[in-house]
């Protein structure tokens, strides 16, 4: 009589090879301040902030099923907290970055009480309205420049090379942490609960999952990441204004990154961010036509690859660098 061994597999060959390649890539990236052109590091900082923001939107919408078009509220809040602490409270600007992210997570708690009263499309529109309230509030605060904004003057006494290097290293660490912690979370029991909630809240509750607490936790984590992205972006940009910090373009671009890369995948925002950077690098000089081209590309990819580019690769070739699924393997003894 045949007997079988049952094995739950959580790794793939691609994930094992990818881990080794990622370590080499991180080591090389860490050395960039000593050999790379400063413009490269500035470009990396900007696109990395878009990636972090897009990854948080993907966590919220792609995995949690909460489609928000107002996450720029938290990005702008994080940026302004950085400037206020650094300029007005004499906090070291680099120390102010994680503190700004923490404060953003805290403000997300009362905001969630308003947002979670809405469902579906109303939730999406409601988050945008909340973002506009944030923008108008900071635009009317004359102490921080009002509608015209203000500069991050606290960095003026720090040598330019030091400022750029530390900003780059902090951004690189934030990218690695974003990918690593998202991967760890999605492989945990809480990650499985989040996926279940996305598919059916009613069925999740019937299985004993605390839907409200799980959604709140993800909403706060996404706000923390958005605030971190905002603080890092304006740390490198050296200037902030309400229109730049709370622009709906942040969410529009993050949706573009996630949708063309692959909604509900960790690899998708990485691929989408690279494509977005390339398009921004070579097509942004065309003005409004640049936005038209982004829109057309998003439409074409959505029509041809409904699961996004990486979603297509993952489905067709079963390549998973960040496998979050559990696979049952049956082996005959």
UniProtKB/TrEMBL annotation:
The keyword Transport does not apply. It is a multi-pass membrane protein. The keyword Membrane applies. It holds the Pfam family BPD_transp_2. The chain crosses the membrane at residues 14-35, 89-109, 121-146, 166-186, 216-235, 255-279, 286-305. InterPro entries: ABC_transp_permease, LivM-like. It comes from the Bacteria. Keywords: Cell membrane, Membrane, Transmembrane, Transmembrane helix. It is found in: Cell membrane. This is Branched-chain amino acid ABC transporter permease. It comes from Undibacterium arcticum. The lineage of its organism: Bacteria, Pseudomonadati, Pseudomonadota, Betaproteobacteria, Burkholderiales.
């Amino acid at each position: 009589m045949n007997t079988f061994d049952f094995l739950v597999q959580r790794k793939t060959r691609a994930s094992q090879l990818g881990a080794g390649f990622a370590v080499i890539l991180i080591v090389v990236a860490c050395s960039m301040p000593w050999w790379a052109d400063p413009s490269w590091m500035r470009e990396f900082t900007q696109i990395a902030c878009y990636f972090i923001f897009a990854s948080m939107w993907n966590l919220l919408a792609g995995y949690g099923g909460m489609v928000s078009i107002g996450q720029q509220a938290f990005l702008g809040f994080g940026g302004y907290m950085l400037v206020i602490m650094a300029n007005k409270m004499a906090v070291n600007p680099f120390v102010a970055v994680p503190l700004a992210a923490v404060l953003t997570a805290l403000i997300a708690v009362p905001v969630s009480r308003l947002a979670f009263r809405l469902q579906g499309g109303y939730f999406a529109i409601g988050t945008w309205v909340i973002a506009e309230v944030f923008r108008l509030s900071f635009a009317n605060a004359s102490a921080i420049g009002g509608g015209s904004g203000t500069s991050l003057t606290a960095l003026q006494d720090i040598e330019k090379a030091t400022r750029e290097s530390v900003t780059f290293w902090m951004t690189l660490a934030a990218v690695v942490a974003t990918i690593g912690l998202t991967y760890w979370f999605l492989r945990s029991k809480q990650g499985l609960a989040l996926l279940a909630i996305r598919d059916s809240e009613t069925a999740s509750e019937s299985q004993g999952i605390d839907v409200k607490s799980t959604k709140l936790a993800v909403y706060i984590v996404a706000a923390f990441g958005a605030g971190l992205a905002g603080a890092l972006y304006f740390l490198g940009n050296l200037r902030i204004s309400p229109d730049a910090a709370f622009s709906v373009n942040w969410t529009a671009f993050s949706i573009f990154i996630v949708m063309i890369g692959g909604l509900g995948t960790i690899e998708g925002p990485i691929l989408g961010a690279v494509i977005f950077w390339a398009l921004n690098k070579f097509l942004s000089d065309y003005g409004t036509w640049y936005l038209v081209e982004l829109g057309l590309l998003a439409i074409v990819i959505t029509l041809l690859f409904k699961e996004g580019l990486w979603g297509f690769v993952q489905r067709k070739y079963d390549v998973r660098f960040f496998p979050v699924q559990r696979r049952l393997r049956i082996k005959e003894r």
